[in-house]
Design brief:
Blueprint lengths: L6 H11 L2 E3 L17 H5 L2 H10 L4 H5 L3 H14 L6 H12 L10 H8 L3 H12 L1 E5 L7 H8 L8 E2 L2 E2 L1 H6 L5 H15 L4 E6 L9 H17 L3 E8 L12 E2 L5 H9 L5 E5 L5 H10 L3 E3 L9 H15 L15 H26 L6 H20 L4
Parallel strand pairs: 1-2, 2-3, 4-5, 5-6, 6-8, 8-9
Antiparallel strand pairs: 6-7
Helix pairs in contact: 1-16, 1-17, 3-5, 6-16, 8-16, 11-12, 14-15, 15-16
Length: 396
């Protein structure tokens, strides 16, 4: 029988010391040029904060978009951080980043922060941010039909070994909707060989149905799923977005809708040789996703995406997954678009995950089974690392 341990203390220590594989981000390796975003002006003009700005300031979106980026970030700082208390998840995240980097969180202006980032060596800064965030590697989002990104890959740049590729399909399934399955397959084969992605990925509307008469359904069947099978990589489905419910807000203008997850059932059932990483945007779809994961071992639920990435909702979803799936899921990804967001997003994840696991182990002990530090280390490593590595058959 394992010795009695201080469960809460051990869980906190193990989670803090286990390096994370961040399985879905919108970050870019420094070698891919100006595609990557970092620094205070990008942090503050992130679309989560832009949406908050329009609730707290009289400026309208048209006037805002006419401003230079530095003026936009000055306005957001003044409005959301000086004139208001930054208690929302997005604003508190910026405070967490500034504090971690030793910057003044009460500053009246952004002068100090801008000087800090302007003097930064990017390669050193990337290493420092990953260290502070406790992240060993990240998976990017890579679109071969983006001409700027394609040019960087075609130039022969080799990304930093800590940055792994994921081949994004959104534009392929829309811009090539009139193409044959063979043409799309040829494109996919070319870019899989070049990028060596850990998976292919697509963001899908809440109205997504499979099979259907839509071109995307045909291309999934004729090209994407066979390519994933033959290259032995999963397909990531991110389901539930409603595009541009308020177009004036641009990136901040998307919404959320409940999806019919019977399409996931069909995919998992009809294509048993394929593996599917799935995350859903609607809170109401979470239980259904867990039930499907109990029925199909080729389905891996992952993360609390976008509007769900708030501690109160993350806690609810993670508890539900633990109760239904044990440790056979991936609890979180950052979805970070700005490098420094890794700091606050993974701090929040660890802070939320620790009491959830502690409570589960305490209940287990009350029911007659003590856990050891080795048990906890194995479970945490599974959720933060090895579930992803085993599901992708790759070492990250």
């Amino acid at each position: 029988m394992p010795l009695m341990i201080d469960i809460a203390a051990v869980v906190e220590d193990v989670i803090a010391s286990t390096p994370v594989i961040d399985i879905h981000t919108h970050l870019f390796a420094p070698e891919l040029g100006a595609l990557g975003l970092w620094g205070i002006d990008n942090l503050l003009t992130y679309h989560y904060l832009e949406a908050e700005l329009f609730r707290s300031c009289s400026i309208n979106p048209r006037q805002y978009w006419e401003l230079e980026k530095s003026a936009q970030s000055d306005l957001i700082w003044k409005t959301l951080f000086i004139e208001n208390t930054p208690v929302s998840e997005a604003t508190r995240g910026v405070i967490s980043v500034l504090n971690a980097l030793g910057l003044d969180t009460h500053a009246e202006s952004l002068k100090e922060a801008r000087e800090f980032f302007n003097q930064m060596n990017l390669a050193d800064h990337v290493t420092n941010v990953l260290r502070i965030a406790g992240v060993s590697s990240v998976v990017m989002t890579n679109d071969p039909l983006d001409p700027n990104e394609a040019a960087e890959w075609n130039a022969g740049h080799e990304p930093d070994a800590r940055f792994h590729a994921a081949l994004r399909l959104d534009r392929i399934l829309t811009d090539m909707s009139g193409s044959t399955g063979a043409a799309v397959r040829e494109l996919l084969d070319t870019w899989v060989a070049r990028m060596k992605p850990f998976y292919m990925a697509v963001s899908l509307l809440d109205s997504f149905k499979f099979p259907s008469e839509e071109p995307a359904s045909r291309l999934l069947t004729e090209a994407v799923l066979p390519a994933c099978r033959d290259w032995n990589i999963p397909l990531a489905l991110m389901i539930g977005v409603r595009r541009q419910v308020n177009p004036a807000l641009r990136l901040a203008g998307d919404g959320v809708g409940r999806a019919d997850l019977r399409s996931v059932e069909v995919l998992c059932s009809r294509f048993p040789e394929n593996r599917f990483l799935v995350t859903v945007l609607s809170r109401e779809n979470q239980h259904e996703l867990c039930v499907y994961a109990r029925k199909f071992s080729n389905l891996m639920p992952f993360g609390c995406w976008w509007f769900l990435n708030n501690p109160s909702i993350v806690e609810e979803i993670t508890r539900e997954r633990l109760e239904l799936l044990g440790t056979t899921f991936i609890p979180q990804h950052s979805d970070a678009r700005i490098l420094e967001q890794l700091i606050y997003k993974w701090r929040n994840t660890r802070r939320t995950l620790a009491p959830i696991l502690t409570r589960s182990y305490e209940l287990l002990a009350q029911d007659g089974r003590q856990v050891s530090r080795e048990d906890i280390e194995r479970d945490v490593r599974r959720m933060l690392r090895s579930n992803f590595e085993q599901f992708t058959n790759r070492v990250a």
